[in-house]
Every structure is written in C-alpha cells, then in structure tokens.
Amino acid sequence: MTLTRPGARHADRAPVRSRLRTPLLYAVSFAVALALAAALVTVGGHSMADALLALYQGSLDGGASIGQTIDETTPLLIVAIGAIVSARAGIFNIGQEGQLIVGAAAGAAIGLFVPGPGWLVGALALLGAALAGALWAGIPAVLYYWRGVDVVVATLLMVFVAMQLVSFAVNRDYLLQETAVEGQILSPQSDLLPEGVRLPRLGEYPDFNLGTGFVIALAVTGVVAYLLRHGKWGFRLRMLGLNPVAARRAGVRAAALGGGALLLSGGAAGLAGGVMLTGGVYRIQAGFADNVGWEGLLVALVARNHPLVAIPVALFFGVLRAGGGFLASTGVPRYLVSVVTALLVLAAAFPAAYAELRKRRRPAVEA
Amino acid sequence: MDSVELILASAVRLAVPLAFAALGEWIAERAGTLNISVEGMMLGGAFTAVAGAGLTGSASAGLLFGVAAGLLVAFVHACFSHRLSVNTYVVGLTLNVLVLGLTSFLLLKTESRQVDKLTIPLLSDIPVIGPALFDQRWPAYLLAALVPAAWWLVRRSRWGLEARAAGENPQSADVTGIDVNKRRRQALMLCGALAGLGGAYLAVAEVGTFNQNMTAGRGYMVIAAVIFGGWTLRGTLAGVLVFGAADAMRLALPALGYTLNPQFLVASPYILALIAMTFFATTRRGPAALGRPFVRGIT
C-alpha cells in the first residue's frame, strides 16, 4: 500500500492544469506583445499588413533575404553562446557590446596591416578579434578577483570606454582611419579589408548565399553545448554557477574557472565582432556594433541559457533584424524592430517568472 | 578668468539633468536595485516632456509629463524585477532598448519650447561661481529642495532605514517584517520620477526640443556617478559635477584654443568610476545585496 499525502487526490489533477497553463501563458503574453506592436504601427499611421509584408520580404522571401537573415543571426548566436557560458558559471557579463567592437577593431588592424597570404591573415584576424574581446572582458575579471569590483558594473562601464577607444582609433590617420584620397573628405572609418582576408561566401549572389561565419557559429554552439552537458569542465562550471560555496568545497577553483568563463564570453563577443567584420561589413567605424552585443545577450536570456535553444532564438532575432532593414521602404521607421524585440523579450520572460511566483505563493502543504 | 567662469557655468548646466537622475539612482541602489533602466527613464522623460509641452503649450507642464514617463518605466521595471524576480539587468537593458525604439519610432517634430531662466539678482553677480549657481533655468533650483529631502528620506526616515536594510541584507530585513520587494519597488518608483524629471529638464529646459536618442548614455553616466561617489549622496553629486565638467571641457576647450582629445573626455566618467571602484573597493562599498533579487527562503 502506498502512502498518500493529504491532498494527493487533488494533486492528480493539478499537473494537467499547470501543464496547460504555461503554454497558455506564453500564448497570451506573446499575443499582448504583438497587439501592442500592432497598436503602435496603427497609431503611427502605417499599415500593419505592409509592415508584416516588408518584414517577410526582407528576411525570408527568396535566397538573398534568407542569406541576409543568416548573416544577421551569426554574430547574435556567437555572442549569446558566450553569454550562456558565463551565466552558467554564475557570472553576469553585460559588456558584450564593447567586447564585440574592440574585437572587431583588433581584427581590422590585423586584416589591414599584417602581411601574408589572405586565408592566414583572415584566420589571424578572427583569432585576434577573439583575443581582444577576451582581453576586454579580462579587465573586469581581474578587477573582480583582485579587488572585488562588481562584474556587472565593470563590464557595463567598459562598453562606453570601448566605444570611445574605437572612435579614437578610427579618427587617427596613424591608427585605423582610412587612407587619404585626393579631393575626398576623410570619414571616421577604416579602409575596406582586402578581398583575400574576407570570409568566403557559400552560394551565388543574388540567389541563396550565406557567409561561412554561420558555420563557425554553429561549430562554437555545438562544442559549447556538448562540453556543458558532458564535459568535466561543463560540470564544474554549472556547479560553480548553481552553488559557489559547495563548488569551492568540492575543489573547484572559482577564480580560474569563473574568470575563464568571463574571458570566454568576452572572447565569443570579440569573435562575433571579427565574423561581422570579415564576413560582411569589411570596415570598422564607431557605430559598428549596432546593438548586436545587447541583443545577443537578450538571445541568451530568452533561450534560458541553453546553447541549442539559442539557435532558433537567434534566428528569430535575425529575422527581425534583416526584416527591419526592409521596413524603411514602406515608410515604417525601422525602430519598430527594436520595439518588437524588446516587447517579445519581456513577453518571453513573463510566463516562467509568473509560474515561479505562483509556485512560491501556494501553501506549503501542496508544495 | 572669464573662461573658468564660462566652463564652470556650463559644467553646472550640464550636470543638472544628471543630478536629478543621480538622486533617484542613489535611492534605488541604496535599496538594492542596480537600476540600468535609468537611461530609458531619462529618455522617456525627455520625449514625453516635449510631447506634453506641445500638447499643453506650456514647457513647465512638460516637466510633469516627463515625471509620468519615468514613473511608467519604473513601474514596468519594478513589476518585472521585484514581483516576478526576473534578472534586473536584463529587464533594465530591455527597457532601454524599448524606450529608445519607441521614442525613435514616434519621433515628432515640435516647435522649440523652453522654460524660463531664473536669474537671482545680486547673487548671480558674484564672480566665478555666480553665473554657475544663480543663473539657471528655474527647475534647476528644485535641486536645492530635492537633495536635502532625498538625504533625509534615505538617511533619517523610517522608510529610508527599511529601504537601506532591503539593500544591505534582505533576509534579515524580511525577518524583521519589512516587505523587502515593496521597499525596492517604492525606491525604484522614486528613481523613475526623478530620472524622468532629469530627462524632462534636459529636453524642455536645456535643449528645447527632442532629438533621437538625446540622452545619449547620460543614464549610464549617472550609474557611474553613483559608483564614483561610493554610494554616498555627497560623492554622487560630486561625481555628477566632475562628469559635467568633463562634458563642459569637451565643448569649450576647442573654442579656447586648447586641444584635449574628445574621445578621452567622453570616456573619462566611465574610467573614473572604474578607478574609484578599484581603489575604494575595500573602504567604501555598495549595498551588500545590490542587484540580487530577493526571494524569501533562499539564501
């Protein structure tokens, strides 16, 4: 005979209801977010149908658009994977925007000034970008383990230093600014990378084509997903994130592992910058990062720190970004995309948190 | 001498919107919220202030609209991070993206409306500091009342004690019967009102119109100021003034014939805050539970 707790008869039915409740909550909160976005478009005096059509045409209609979406997805995914690694270790890095642009600047410097065969210089540029991003995240890591400076604050502040650093570099002709051409005003941007250094593209323009950067992104995702789940490193990392005290007692070296995770996430952001640079933008300027760092962080959040879930989430964000470029043609300002993105992030955060809140509020007998 | 007076006046002028927001950020951080959405609060405040001024035809009424926008952003932030316990940094960043997108999307062209200057006779004639302190737009003088009020509220009132307890040791505060998350929400709402006012001041007092992304990172500068000041009110205001001075020098130095690199001056608030954090880390520290969500029963 099995022991029955009081209220067990009740508990038989409860899971069915709560299993239904969560998807319902997701549906409702996404519907609210989209309704708000639709209301905004209408208030702005535009047609929702036109906006949706433009979003579709810019992101999924035909090979070139799909390629564009994948190109937008690539850096988002790499940034998100890095953010996931540090978040799993219980360290919150929010400075990806800065690490990304510093990485890209380092990549540009290598790509422009290092002599050698194109493919080698290109690989070095990506490596340099990752190292520079890791270095930029390394400063907060050192400050944290040496002086106890809060990582979140330090990484955030470093973003704005990074922006000015890059702005400084592209405004100096002895650093990264483009070479002077007779009769032309110098812009604060670097020269275009030489052809050989750029990442090759698969497929033919204007038909389906995508940058090889996406392959890099998928490889990084796969490796991290595997290591987090099966590797010793991943196990220690998760242990550190879930219970730092227990992890330390069990012999996990917090500074090395946690600091390493922070460096890795910075390195991923830097690599994302390098891939953006060598895969499609080809030159660095002050506005290079274009919110990719922030949005990559949001991808990690929406994916609830699961590397494999990050792939579809990043693709979805990529669709929005690619479609946003097309929106302007319908007269709807492309800023609509940031509004929709933010609303969807809030909508994605709501149901799980709400379920959690309900669970806490339920009386102790049932819990 | 004249140039010192000029730079000082311009430093104070640029520091005023930061000071409003910094007051609020200081209160919020004392209660344990590292409020990143202060940037969105300021930007939203600036936008609605201009919209409200256009609607009512009065720039002063615009200030109230700005406060309302700041409160709205704060309300959403408070619900997400101190009711639902969603990571406060993520909520903050998302709100900043949302407000930036929203204000850029709705970007409106209005005629310039500015609140009046209030020049205090005699005092404004004092050399060097006179124009800086006594020749500003009238809402700037609100600071003279708000700063002591905020100090009293946080350091001397019962509410302030409870809010600080929520920021230092939420578990103990909870045990003594303080509703930790409620205090944090209230502190955040105060921050929203003050940051909204700061953004509104920027729009309808300093500039007169709204430009896309007109706060341009001032909110982050405010966060840096609170850290630079070691989470004290005095230090925070000093930080705001130093950052205002850096901004003023960036604008004034080229005209005076000096060259100091502008990128360095723009980055200086953040570098100063990082240095301050590094060196004061052992002596002056922030609230112990800063940025950590409070959930009863989990230590």
Write a structural description.
The complex is a heterodimer of chains A (about 375) and B (about 300). Chain A is mainly α and about 375 residues long. Chain A has a domain at about 70-180 and about 185-325: ABC transporter involved in vitamin B12 uptake, BtuC (Orthogonal Bundle), CATH 1.10.3470. In chain A, about 70% of the residues lie in helices and about 0% in strands. Chain A has helices at about 10-45, 50-60, 65-90, 95-115, 120-145, 150-170, 215-230, 230-240, 245-250, 255-280, 290-300, 305-325, 335-360; strands at about 200-205, 210. In chain A, strand 1 and strand 2 form a beta hairpin. Chain A is globular, with a radius of gyration of 23 Å. Residues about 1-10 of chain A have low confidence and may be disordered. Chain B has a two-stranded antiparallel sheet with strand order 1-2. The mean pLDDT of chain B is about 85. Chain B has one domain (about 1-215). Chain B is about 70% helix and about 0% strand. The longest helix of chain B has 29 residues, at about 1-30. In chain B, helix 2 (about 40-55) crosses helix 10 (about 220-230), helix 3 (about 60-80) packs antiparallel against helix 9 and helix 6 (about 140-155) packs across helix 7 (about 160-170). Chain B contains 12 helices and 2 strands; from the N terminus they run ααααβαβααααααα. Chains A and B meet through helix 6, helix 11 and helix 13 of A and helix 4, helix 10 and helix 12 of B.
Gist of the model:
Helix content of chain A is 72%, strand content 2%.
Topology at a glance:
The complex is a heterodimer of chains A (367) and B (299).
Chain A: H1 8-43, H2 48-59, H3 63-88, H4 96-113, H5 118-147, H6 151-170, E1 201-203, E2 209-211, H7 213-230, H8 232-242, H9 244-249, H10 254-281, H11 292-302, H12 307-327, H13 336-361
Antiparallel strand pairs in A: 1-2
Chain B: H1 2-30, H2 38-56, H3 59-82, H4 88-105, E1 117-119, H5 130-134, E2 135-137, H6 142-155, H7 158-168, H8 170-175, H9 180-207, H10 218-228, H11 233-256, H12 262-280
Antiparallel strand pairs in B: 1-2
Helix pairs in contact in B: 1-6, 1-9, 1-10, 1-11, 2-3, 2-4, 2-9, 2-10, 3-4, 3-9, 6-7, 7-9, 10-11, 10-12, 11-12
